[in-house]
Amino acid sequence: MADDANKAEKILYMVTKGREDAEMALLPFIHAVGAQSMDVEAVVVVMANGVNLVRKGYAQGIALPHMPPLTELLDNFLKLGGRILVCGPCIKSRAIAEDDLIDGATVVGAATLTEEALSANAVMNY
Question: What is the per-residue pLDDT across 2-37, written as a single tens digit (0 to 9) for each?
């Protein structure tokens, strides 16, 4: 394992909510874009109902007053080099095919998610 003094800063944002809780769907992406603007590596993990956020077309219309819409946040996050990891078992249980996901969303399993969490300086759950 790398020396902590040489370790790049990294935050993992775990998203478990979809359209049913727009605030909890938007906040992790707002924070992740903010982290990236500070040169902190931001990785968003969507799981449980949060996997719907990266289904093509689903993000349309998810917005709240005084917050950027989810489509804008997703675009900015990915343009800034952000990574979106998708829980494989979660999409399978919802009959979502990988082809139904937006570009930039990568389906992963439990081992990858565990590695990401262990390598992060912080893990935030929404």
Answer: 445 555 899 999 999 999 999 999 999 999 999 999
- The total domain count for the chain is 1
The pLDDT assigned to 2 comes to: 42
Say if residue 1 is exposed, middle or buried (CB neighbours under 10 Å; 0-12, 13-18, 19+): exposed
Answer whether 36's CB lies under 8 Å from 28's CB. no
Give the Cβ contact number of residue 48 at 10 Å: 15
- Tell me, yes or no, whether 53 lies in a domain: yes
Is 88 part of a structural domain of the chain?
yes
Cα–Cα distance for residue pair 44/71, rounded to 1 Å: 15
Q: Do you know the residue count of the chain?
A: 126
Share of the chain above pLDDT 70, in %: 94
Whether the model clears a pTM of 0.70, i.e. scores above it, the answer is yes
